[in-house]
Specification:
By secondary structure, this protein is of the alpha/beta class. The chain has two domains: about 5-145, Rossmann fold; about 145-310, L-2-Hydroxyisocaproate Dehydrogenase, Chain A, domain 2 (Alpha-Beta Complex). The chain has helices spanning about 15-25, 40-50, 50-55, 95-110, 125-135, 145-160, 200-210, 215-220, 230-240, 285-310, and strands at about 5-10, 30-35, 60-65, 75, 115-120, 140-145, 170, 170-175, 180, 190, 190-195, 245-255, 260-275, 275-280. Helix 1 (about 15-25) crosses helix 9 and helix 5 packs across helix 10. The chain binds 3-acetylpyridine adenine dinucleotide. 3-acetylpyridine adenine dinucleotide binds next to helix 1 and helix 4.
Length: about 325
Amino acid sequence: MKRAKVAVVGAGNVGATVAHQLLMHEVADTVLIDVVEGMPQGKGLDLAESTPVEARSVLMDGSNDYGALAGADVVVITAGIARKPGMSRDDLLATNAGIVKAAAEHVKAKAPNAFVVVVTNPLDVMTYLAWKVTGFDRKRVLGMAGVLDSTRFAYFVSRELNVAARDVQAMVLGGHGDTMVPLPRYTTVSGIPITDLLGAEVIAKLSQRTRDGGAEIVALLKQGSAFYAPGSSVVAMVKSLLRDEKRLLPGAAILAGEYGEPDVCLGVPMVIGEGGVERIIELKLGAEEKAALHKSAEAVRDGMKVLKERQFL
Ligand code: A3D
């Protein structure tokens, strides 16, 4: 059987962490692609040299040449500029749009059958751009944000209740930003909704910490942004794609009217398998949740407007 191949565009903190976790979980042969001369080759070789001691049977490599995309089953796009303290996600938009557009053009030309998992911020807008530029079926282009936002929410809940983190399942929808929509009703500890376990005030506090989760880490690191939990979140999605796990995860999908939102990219629950985004689950939202999701979609549309003004779309 042919071994799966993942190409990770952008060999920075998130890209290298994704590659390391793909190695540790033996998911696929992996190539890191970056514009910095020698860096992806160095990280690729360093990773490869750990395979004997880790007893992992995967090949790891690095390249400055987008030709290395050839044969990739999944392309993870992490190339871009990371958010700096005090910088809003939207400040990143123009710079990262140029980088993602170029990467997506290469994917279209060199890996026309691949799934694309976008990580570059602002996430929902960049995923929409990658979808437009590749022209791929919307099932094949997805963004990673909801898994990260949900694992953060789950972690905060687990600490608050002093229960095992693995027993908490959280659901966070919407755009990856200040307008994300944590859903306490659909967040459970071994099936028990947290609304039965925690007071409204505490839930509101944990939801806000989740919304600020990225900024909290940026402020602590002083340089760069989170990469361990983002790396784990990307690998969960890649594994589900390549192993046809059919996991139901929150992810950024191109919507065509689901949740009443046409032509936008937004975080929704999705089933991920060998067909890509095989299904989008439409939850029955309350009026307040619906309004919050719509506000989130409008924030993404603001970013799309900037892309149009600057002729990226
Ligand atoms: P960083 O460590 O700076 O890595 C980015 C890499 O991209 C660098 O090595 C650059 O050299 C490389 N790069 C720049 N331009 C190109 C290009 N044209 N082709 C190939 N490589 C290029 O950043 P990071 O890894 O911490 O973050 C990467 C991106 O992911 C940023 O946009 C972050 O904001 C974003 N991010 C998103 C999430 C989400 O949950 C959505 C989480 C964490 C990071």
